[in-house]
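pls design
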């Protein structure tokens, strides 16, 4: 699926060129460019709404408000129900509704104006599929009373939805008909995204399984030992720690490779630098939670920043799979 979304074929480029030429012929070249720029801003704003939804979802879980509304889509049979936990859950649902409207409106505009540009319409179709999956999983999570696997799946689907929106935003912002290089750096970025997505799921599993405090306040030791008493909760915690460390090193490696393999792509180099810095900040937040305090606030901040880091990473990946560098050194 990644290659299908990332690689624009010659027909797609020709379709995009034909659309641009037709707009200029009609005297609407400038208007078309403005419209596309506005749609790109719309898509970027929608991706930020997706990040906010993931943050609010983390607050719903950390505050134990997931069953504040035991039914769906209503809340206690009402559109607006009172109560602390109910209001938190309802706020999450209202924000999700805003996201649904924004995604649907974006898709409508793209299919209306750029339906011949397959390099854009294919990610939009994926975005709509991820939106439908997210809505269904939201209802299933509530109806199954927040069973751990449904919460993790719901979080993972939200991450995939944000990725798809970010890809649409980049494809709108960079209407380049050139084929982006399909080299070792592109493959490295794909692995980076896949491993980070796995880390998100591992972190969500740790939080929902209640294993986030099982190793106490020590790091890198677990309960003061390199070989602690082993059970499934300890295993989840240790897997998350090791996985996070490996991905942090990978972030540094991707930054160095971007300097070498994308010398003429400043956007990619800046995005790689931002992602690397955000991973280090996220690691610091993790150390803070383990060694100092593990409260609802710090847990939500940690999860929120993880979602922001994911948004930055998928933006980097979308740039890598969309824009073409004038000089690319391939080592793959």
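designed seq:
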């Amino acid at each position: 699926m990644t290659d299908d979304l990332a690689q624009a074929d010659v027909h797609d480029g020709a379709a995009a060129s034909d659309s641009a030429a037709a707009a200029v012929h009609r005297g609407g070249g400038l208007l078309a460019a403005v419209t596309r720029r506005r749609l790109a801003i719309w898509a970027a704003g929608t991706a930020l709404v997706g990040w906010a939804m993931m943050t609010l979802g983390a607050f719903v879980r950390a505050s134990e408000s997931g069953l504040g509304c035991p039914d769906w889509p209503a809340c206690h049979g009402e559109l607006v129900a009172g109560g602390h936990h109910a209001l938190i859950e309802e706020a999450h649902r209202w924000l999700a509704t805003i996201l649904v409207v924004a995604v649907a409106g974006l898709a409508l505009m793209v299919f209306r104006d750029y339906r011949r540009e397959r390099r854009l319409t294919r990610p939009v179709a994926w975005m709509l599929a991820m939106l439908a999956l997210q809505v269904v999983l939201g209802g299933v999570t509530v109806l199954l009373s927040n069973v751990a696997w449904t919460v993790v799946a719901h979080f993972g689907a939200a991450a995939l939805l944000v990725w798809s929106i970010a890809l649409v935003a980049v494809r709108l912002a960079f209407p380049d008909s050139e084929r982006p290089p399909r080299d070792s750096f592109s493959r490295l970025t794909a692995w980076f995204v896949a491993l980070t997505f796995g880390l998100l799921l591992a972190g969500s599993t740790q939080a929902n399984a209640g294993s986030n405090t099982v190793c106490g306040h020590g790091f890198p030791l677990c309960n003061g030992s390199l070989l602690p008493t082993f059970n499934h909760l300890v295993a989840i915690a240790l897997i998350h720690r090791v996985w996070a460390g490996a991905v942090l090193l990978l972030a540094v490696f991707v930054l160095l490779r971007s300097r070498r393999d994308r010398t003429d792509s400043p956007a990619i180099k800046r995005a790689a630098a931002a992602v690397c810095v955000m991973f280090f900040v996220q690691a610091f937040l993790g150390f803070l939670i383990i060694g100092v305090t593990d409260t609802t606030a710090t847990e939500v901040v940690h999860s929120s920043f993880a979602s922001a880091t994911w948004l930055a990473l998928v933006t980097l990946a979308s740039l890598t799979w969309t824009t073409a560098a004038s000089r690319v050194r391939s080592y793959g």
